Structure formats: C-alpha cells, structure tokens
TrEMBL record:
It comes from the Bacteria. This is DUF2768 family protein. The chain crosses the membrane at residues 12-36, 43-65. The keyword Transmembrane helix applies. The keyword Membrane applies. Keywords: Membrane, Transmembrane, Transmembrane helix.
Amino acid sequence: MTYVNTSDISPQMFVTVLLFLLVIAPMFSLGILRLFQGKKKAGLLLMASGVGVYVVFQLIMSLFFEH
C-alpha cells in the first residue's frame, strides 16, 4: 500500500482547492442532469460555467501557488 505525503500542502492551497471543488463538481453534475432532463440550454450553460470556473482555478493556482 502506498501513502501520499500531503505535509507540504499549505492550508491556503487546501482551502482554495476545496472551495473550487465545491463549485466545479456540482456545476458539471447539474449540467449532466439537465442534459438528461432534456434541457439542453441549461445543461450546456452549466457545463460551460464549470469549464470557466476551472480556467479561473488554474489561473489562481499558477499565480499564487507556483513553486
């Protein structure tokens, strides 16, 4: 069994990742749900918003947490 060393993750990075995951994951899952319900516009809008938030997340991570 292999363990991952998480001791070098700062509390600020942990909180940032946690907050973005609480936004990105629900957007994608709600988008897929709306697509299955036949609401294409709402589903695609939610999924596009999730991609947009992911891009913002990548920008923030590269600007503030670069090693």
